[in-house]
C-alpha cells in the first residue's frame, strides 16, 4: 500500500494532465512531417516520449523551486483558483514525498531524457540539439535562470516555447531523419526545412498560450506588481489584458482560414477556434464582474479551448492525403499514441466539467 501511495505521489508530481500541452504540440509537428512524406514510427515515438519527459522535468523543477520559496501558504488558499501551470502538485507541501526523494526523481528523469534524446540524435543528427537548446532556454528561462517573466518577456516565452519551438522541433526531427532520403538532410540551416503549413500550425498554438497567459496574469496582478514582476499586464493594465485574448482569437481564426485554403481537412479545427472567439469576446466585455471572472478562471476555459484546437489539428491529419509508405498499421499506431498521451488531460477536463459550456459561461 505504501509503495502504491508513493508511486501515485510521483505520478501526481509530474502533473500529467498538463503534459498534453507538450505532447499534442509535438504530435502536430510529427503529423505534418508525415503528411509531407517523412515517416518513421520509432522516431515519432521517441519525440513524443522526449516531450513528455521534458515537460515532467519542468513540472518537477517548478515544484522544487516553489517549495524552496515556501509558497504553500499561497496554494492552500482555497479562495484562489488555480491557474494553468501555477500552484504546484502539492506533493512536497502535503509531505507525500521528501525533498531528497523529489531531487532523486528529478535526476532520474534527466537521465531518461538524455537516453531518449540520444535515440533522436541517432536518427536526426547532432543538429537537433539546436532545437533542444531553444526549448531549454524558454523552459528554464521563463521563471528561473533568466526570469524572462519578470522583464515583460514571459508572454513571448510562452508563445515561442509552447508553439513554434515544440511543433517545429518535432517536425524538424522527422525532416532531418537520415533515413528519410532528403538530399538536404545534412544542412545546419534548420529554418530552411520548416514549411509554411507547419509554421502556421505552430503559430496557432503559440498564440493561444500568449492570450491565455494574459488572463492568468490578471489574477496575479496585485502580487506581480508588489513583487516588481513587470509582466505586460502589470505594464499596461487589466483592460489591455482583457482585450488581448479576443484579439489573439481573431488572429487564430485568420490563421485557421489560411490552413483551410491549403487543405479543407483543416476545417476540423474550426469548432475550437470559433468557440475561443466567442468566449474571449464574452470575457472582454464581462471581466469586471468579479463573480464571472472567478468562475471563468476556475473553468480552465482557455486550456480546454487549446485542447480542442490542438485535437482539431490532429484529427484533420486523418482526413488529409497522408503518404502510405509507412503502412496503415504505422498510421494507426501514431494516432493511438496521440490518444494515449491525451487521456490524463481529457480525464482532468472531464472531471472539472469544463466541457459543460453553459456552466463555464
TrEMBL record:
Membrane topology note: Multi-pass membrane protein
Keywords linked to the UniProt accession: Membrane, Transferase, Transmembrane, Transmembrane helix
Pfam families tied to this protein: UbiA
Main location: membrane
Cellular compartment(s): Membrane
Residue ranges crossing the lipid bilayer per the database entry: 16-35, 41-61, 102-120, 126-144, 156-174, 190-210, 240-259, 265-281, 301-319, 325-349
UniProt-listed PANTHER family: 1,4-DIHYDROXY-2-NAPHTHOATE OCTAPRENYLTRANSFERASE, UBIA PRENYLTRANSFERASE DOMAIN-CONTAINING PROTEIN 1
Protein name listed in UniProt: Prenyltransferase
Organism field: Actinokineospora guangxiensis
Lineage: Bacteria, Bacillati, Actinomycetota, Actinomycetes, Pseudonocardiales
Amino acid at each position: 500500500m505504501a509503495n502504491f501511495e508513493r508511486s501515485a505521489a510521483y505520478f501526481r508530481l509530474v502533473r500529467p494532465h498538463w503534459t498534453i500541452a507538450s505532447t499534442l504540440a509535438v504530435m502536430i509537428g510529427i503529423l505534418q512531417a508525415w503528411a509531407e512524406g517523412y515517416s518513421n514510427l520509432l522516431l515519432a515515438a521517441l519525440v513524443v516520449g522526449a516531450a513528455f519527459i521534458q515537460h515532467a522535468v519542468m513540472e518537477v523543477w517548478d515544484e522544487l523551486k516553489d517549495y524552496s520559496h515556501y509558497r504553500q501558504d499561497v496554494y492552500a488558499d482555497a479562495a484562489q483558483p488555480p491557474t494553468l501551470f501555477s500552484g504546484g502538485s502539492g506533493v512536497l507541501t502535503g509531505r507525500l514525498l521528501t525533498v531528497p526523494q523529489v531531487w532523486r526523481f528529478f535526476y532520474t528523469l534527466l537521465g531518461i531524457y538524455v537516453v531518449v534524446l540520444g535515440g533522436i540524435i541517432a536518427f536526426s543528427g547532432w543538429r537537433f540539439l539546436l532545437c533542444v537548446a531553444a526549448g531549454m532556454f524558454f523552459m528554464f528561462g521563463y521563471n528561473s535562470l533568466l526570469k524572462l517573466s519578470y522583464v515583460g518577456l514571459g508572454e513571448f516565452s510562452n508563445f515561442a516555447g509552447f508553439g513554434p519551438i515544440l511543433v517545429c522541433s518535432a517536425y524538424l526531427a522527422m525532416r532531418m531523419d537520415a533515413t528519410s532520403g532528403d538530399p538536404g538532410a545534412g544542412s545546419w540551416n534548420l529554418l530552411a526545412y520548416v514549411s509554411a503549413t507547419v509554421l502556421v500550425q505552430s503559430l496557432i498554438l503559440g498564440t493561444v498560450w500568449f492570450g491565455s497567459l494574459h488572463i492568468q496574469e490578471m489574477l496575479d496582478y496585485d502580487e506581480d506588481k508588489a513583487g516588481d514582476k513587470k509582466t505586460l499586464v502589470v505594464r499596461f493594465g487589466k483592460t489591455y489584458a482583457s482585450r488581448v485574448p479576443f484579439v489573439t482569437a481573431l488572429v487564430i481564426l485568420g490563421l485557421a482560414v489560411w490552413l483551410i485554403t491549403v487543405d479543407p481537412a483543416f476545417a476540423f479545427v474550426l469548432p475550437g477556434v470559433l468557440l475561443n472567439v466567442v468566449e474571449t469576446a464574452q470575457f472582454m466585455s464581462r471581466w469586471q464582474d468579479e463573480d464571472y471572472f472567478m468562475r471563468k478562471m476556475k473553468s480552465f476555459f482557455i486550456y480546454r479551448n487549446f485542447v480542442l484546437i490542438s485535437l482539431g489539428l490532429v484529427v484533420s491529419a486523418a482526413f488529409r492525403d497522408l503518404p502510405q509508405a509507412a503502412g496503415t498499421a504505422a498510421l494507426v499506431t501514431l494516432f493511438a499514441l496521440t490518444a494515449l498521451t491525451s487521456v490524463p488531460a481529457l480525464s482532468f477536463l472531464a472531471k472539472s466539467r469544463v466541457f459543460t459550456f453553459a456552466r463555464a459561461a
